[in-house]
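Aim 2 progress update. The chain analyzed this quarter is reproduced below.
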Amino acid sequence: MNKNQQYQNTILRILVDSPQITVKKIAEKIGLSEKTTRLQLDYLNEYLNQNSIGCIERIPGKGVKLTLEKTINGKFLHLTVQDSSLNAHILPQILEKLLKSKPIMYITQKSLATELYVSLPTLRKAIAEARIWLKENNLEIETIKNKGMRVIGNEVSVRFAIRNLIVQDQERPVVQKLCKFVPGLSIDKCRSIIKFAEEKWKIQFSSESLDRILIMLCLSLYRKKLSDHLQFTIIEGIERFNEYNFAETIYQIAEEQGYDPVSSNDKRILAYEILLSSKLVWLDDSEDKKDIDELTVLDQFVSKLIFTVSDVLKEDLSKDQMLIEDLKEHLRSAIFRIKYGSADQTLIGKQLKQEFNKVYLSVWSTSQLFEEYFDIQISENEVSYIVLYIESALMRKKNKSNLFYTTNQSRSASHYVAELLKLNIPEINEIRIVRSSLPTVKKGESTIHVADHDTGFSNIIKISKIPDNKDFLEIRKALRHGQMPLTQSKFSKSIQSLFAPNLFFMNEESISKELLLKKMTNKLAEEGYVSQDYFSTLWKREQETSTCVGNKTAIPHGAMKEVNEPKIAVCTLKTKMQWSKDEEVQLIFLLAAKMNTKVNIDKTKTFYSDLIRITENEEIFEKLINSQDGVKAYRFLFS
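Predicted structure tokens:
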């Protein structure tokens, strides 16, 4: 049976049970528009006339009614099709009834059969198919004698099942289908919230992606109480992704428009949907239900990118953990913006092409990977950012640190520890096992010292007899922070994603503090990192108190609620500027902080910690102040 026949058979049953009914009510019952329903009534009327069964009378202002030939018994009347063919038509209706019911409510098969105008045998066949569909969505039908049936499963699965059901129905508009699951909620208002968030971030979703995000937003606002009480996990560490920050922006706007605050679980669910919608993770609907272990596409992509670059350069960078983590951190944000944001117009690529031509070409060779994995075309400037990460990795490879391991263990035990350190810290070039507390270091040699016992020297890192992850982390920190006798300390690699070469303003004139800060915040707003209102909150703070922190350095910052994505803009001045009545400044870090997750809190803490070392080190301070170029200054801070 085709769909037209299914609809006509259902309409026939409705007409038999209803002496008189409006077209609007029939349309609501079968889920079609009134125009389409009238068309189906015409087809049905023609069938009834041709087969001498009867006709459908139209009563002006009242509706329609079925008039049968005297020899026809309406109770047994049906079109020349079998009830089982109706399954495809009534399955979505059964799922809709079950999914929109409250968890404590049961539905009887008899009442459902009556409501859908089908026989009990037909309904039971369709319920069997519904069980299969729900199982594929991590849900089950529970049946209790004398009570009825209901859907059981966690709230996440219910929401994604509702989303899948709505998305799979291509015949009706999303709003028409969604309103049945969120009665009383303004879907148009929710759509405007998402559009407002898009404007703030300067991005635009496709209509399909927008619909999926709209569904999940509406469900979270309508089903809020359920998410408050149910426990579930969704994407461990999703707070690292830009999608989580975007989800927060959406709910922040929703609160401003009168909706109640939602739980962190609701934010994670919406962030997850945005991830799927933006295809940062390449999954289709049938795979959405899989465990978080499936969400490793970004890891796979980074590995493939590094492999491709290594192959072109004939330099193996695959074991550089710093590079892997740096690229993952950068691409989480970059891919989101490439997919839905406006193109970065800052032309830093030309300079890098000349300076690092070979590396630039190696990264450009991965452009097809971006299309393959994320369906995006990488811009010249995004290539340039990746070039900087690759160049840093090549520098590390050329200048690997030697490690002195001071121990009083046996020869075999100390050799085992040395191999363990090599295996877990590939940034180390060579490990020298020594018995004296402080070995002699050759001039110009980059070294780090560890010991498995107290030596009395503060510059030696104490490790366990058998090093563990905590020890590896401490040694990596020392390497990242440059805590080696002959290396200067600058910013940690863990906060590199807070900076971008196009946010460096070098050698600016010291004319007006207000104009300078406006120029910096305008650039942040232009890139979608902060809202247009960010400057007003920043300037209000400046008027109330000085943000100079000493050492000719200032850290101006505005309200966190106006920050979309955490970023830091850097500015150096040709000459000192009067920052407040008694303070002068020549170095400015405009901090657009977002303390919404542990990841962002840790980054902000690390920034402040690193800044102390930088401002107190006159050599680093002077080199940064005297730098004439933003790209070079960026490289200097993270090399």
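The two ends are 69 Å apart (CA to CA). The longest strand covers residues 567-580. These observations will guide the mutagenesis experiments scheduled for the next reporting period.
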